[in-house]
Amino acid sequence: MISQMHEVSVYDRDAAYSIIFAISNFYPENKPFHYISNRIHDYSINPVDLKWFLELFPAMQSYHVVFYESPSKSHLELESLFAPIPIIAHEQLIHALDALLLPNNRISKYKR
User: Fold this and answer.
1) pLDDT per position as a tens digit, 60-111
2) 81 in Cβ contact with 47 (< 8 Å)
3) How far apart are CA 97 and CA 24, in angstroms?
């Protein structure tokens, strides 16, 4: 699953419900999946709500974040402190896709 938020939005529990609905409808319960957050826009995310969101999906195999600006990287480091699963950072969407489509030993090439 690839998500992309609107610019200058606040991502919290209320905003997450549409994503939760989409994931729940597309992926049956317990079907493994991967999540890519394509952060082309600057927006706020509440780290506690991110933790809540990630814990809703025990079948989520990995959480990848594509960031394009350095402030996003520092935000990502804060978010990772609250995440119940590792967050894998990428500088380009193609790197996140490669990490998921290539054998697992290639994922470390892009891990930050």
Assistant:
1) 888 899 987 766 677 778 888 888 888 899 989 999 999 888 865 454 444 4
2) yes
3) 22
Question: How many DSSP H helices and E strands does the chain contain?
Answer: 4, 6
Q: Which 8-state DSSP code applies to residue 108?
A: G
At 65, list the tokens: 């974040």
Q: pLDDT category, 9, cuts 50, 70, 90?
A: low
Cα gap 7→12, rounded to integer Å: 14
- Distant-in-sequence contacts of 92-98, Cβ < 8 A, 24+ apart: 92/66, 93/2, 93/36, 93/38, 93/66, 95/66, 96/36, 96/38, 96/64, 96/66, 97/36
What are phi and psi for residue 41, nearest 5 degrees? Answer: -110, 160
* 3-class DSSP state of 93: helix
The single-letter DSSP state of residue 91 is S
